[in-house]
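Form 7-S
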Amino acid sequence: MTTPAQGSRIPPGALYACDNSRFGSDGKGRYWPGSEKWFAWLSRTVERYGTDRCLWALAPDQPFDAVATLTESLPWLDRIRELGVPAAFAAQDGCDQPGLIPWDRVDVLFLAGTTEWKLGPVAERLAREAQVRGKSVHMGRVNSRVRMGIAEWFGCHSVDGTYLAYGPDKNLPKLLRWLDQLDGQPSLLGTTHHPDGGGRAVRTPPPRHASSPAGGIALPSAGAPRTRTR
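Output:
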């Protein structure tokens, strides 16, 4: 994962995804450079690392505000696609209202919004609708085993978070154990046991690819090898 604020170097051969810094590490968007500078950075990044390795680029959004996010994103979705990379759209609280997700112009649904909304039934329903429509799904701010399990249950293809940034030597072994647990836990791959213990029945998620963005994590899919990055 790379952002305008981070300027991360993508290792040779690694896949990558481009966040926009609108939420930012401080949760307030302090590092958001503005739309034009963001797009200039995105264009340089895609030119430098190539379109074939880019999983998606997130259009500008307004955290926690579905209506404002649609207004912010619409001018940029087609321009992202014109760079030759998939366009991601940030789903926020309230975006289940009619017309607030421009599905025909979106390649990836990015589950953003407040924590309560992102882990709730509306986000789950939208994640499954995205898959039916042939879109990939990503969940942001995933920094625990429980949250990773919920993302996997929703059918997310990938997640990101800051868990490894704070103590990578200590936290990497834990993260790898989480992935192993998810890979071997059949209840997350189609039975009726929800990862929070509530026992809610849910449709089996469709098969997912196992590639992962740089700085993010691909969730395990049944019968497919896993690719992991830090």
